[in-house]
Write a structure and sequence with these properties.
The chain is an alpha+beta fold. It folds into two domains: 279 residues, no CATH class; 83 residues, no CATH class. The protein contains eleven helices and eleven strands. The chain has a six-stranded antiparallel beta sheet with strand order 5-6-4-7-3-8. The protein has a three-stranded mixed beta sheet with strand order 10-1-11. The longest helix is centred in the first third of the chain and has 38 residues. The N terminus is likely disordered.
Amino acid sequence: MIHTFAKRLGVFSFVGALLLACGELGGAGGGGGAGSVLGNLACPELQGGAMNATFEADAKANATIRVFVTASGDLQAVAAKAEAEVGAACERMGKDLGVPAEQMAPRENQGRVAAACSAVSARMDAILRTGVSASVKADVTPPRCEVHADAEASCKGVCNVNVDPGYIKAHCEPGHLYGKCEGTCSGKCAGTCNGECQGQCAGQGQASGGGAAASGQCAGQCNGTCKGTCSADCHGACTVDIKEPKCDVAVKGPSADARCEGSCKAHAELTAQCTPAKVNVHATVNTGEMGKLIATLQANLPALITAEIAYGRRIAGDVQVLVQTGSELPSAFGQLTGHAAACIAAAANATVSAQASLHVSIQASASLSAKAGASGGV
């Protein structure tokens, strides 16, 4: 067991270390880079298809891993989208405001978003300092996001795994389990009983004690207790394991894993469709370069505000749920297959990297929105 645990821990440590090292190559705030590529190689399901994948034989574990990997892939895509949109908006603003390209280029561990948006922020400060009374204000209509009506419900259907035969055997109340008996049945037989019938036999032979058949053998329907082979379900004891087990009282299925349901909610929110924000930018003065500033804010501020709200505060709680789930899953279901372990490690790393990337994009967007005097839901 120690060897098995160490081996499983080694899978997580090795994959995680590689992902972390390669993630650092992408620079601070990078939502993609080498770490993302390696993660997708270790777990191709991060790019799609996880809901139909088989990670574990245990249905509950498999469902939870399926949904977590799916939601982690969704988060990875959202972070990359936010980084691309915010980075592009800042670069356009920098070009409009005459910021040299080299000033917007990343330095050392700086990522694209931080570099471009910091340069634009400094340029905005310089323009706004040209007049004591110079200021801008942006009236904002925030983005509206619509979650697909069946996204979370259909996902939770994956979490509510079917009750398998082994579960029925383990959880059926004593005396209520029945099914196919390929050995000797001692109980009520729903089909043809070939053996002794303690009761009335409708068929060849008679029930024991009936007098007409000395042997008391029955080869038909036994209205009583059959002790012999049974052609259908046997309600009673069986000398071998019952096949196709059923329970004549309700068996409550295994409860869905809370991590699975939390990942489902995140999946639904992360795949929501959002309309872009709308803005109306105006200034107290319109001299010097204020005209350029107003024009570029009018064109690019919607992307920044959309990122701040739709990719930021709206999903912040769901992002944290995924990060927490990624830290818990390695030890949640005991021994895991190599592929399950690798996918959990890759997905967990993806959630942490995406959270860091989103933080940079949202902070940059919020800083520029504040300088633009954004109001109306921001």
